[in-house]
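We give the chain.
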Amino acid sequence: MNQTHLHLLTNHLPILGFFFSVILLLWGILAKSKTTIMATAVVVFLSAAGGMVANNTGEAAEEQLEQINGISHAAIHEHEEAAEAAVPFIIASGILSLAMLFFSLKNHRFSNITQWLLLASVAIGSVLSARAGFMGGKIRHSQEIGDTFPAQQEKEHQDEEKD
């Protein structure tokens, strides 16, 4: 398994993990279920760890894709930009999930506010991760998505990089 395979394998963790975590965490908060809240924190942490692996293997995946004819550099750039927007929320969610676990275990007064902060961070991270995944899908699957990156757009992108 190379870094490209690892990237493709792990990039789905924040997309799916964060999506389901929003639902589970909201359920846990409203139901006041400490078990659900803590289990969700573990899912968020693992999803965030997977997101960081995907982020750290993205450059190697890009280099390998650039060797393939017909791959749109504009699509790669769009995916990279979308992923960069998601990374701060992935990191924040991972850190907040650990803080929430700690505060919940200690029945600390910051437990409730940490739960709501985590919910907000995971919700935003979910949307941004899904967008990055969608943009990544355009790299090799533009025909199925119904979107293409024509040669003119590719040329414009290359001209921007030269400036």
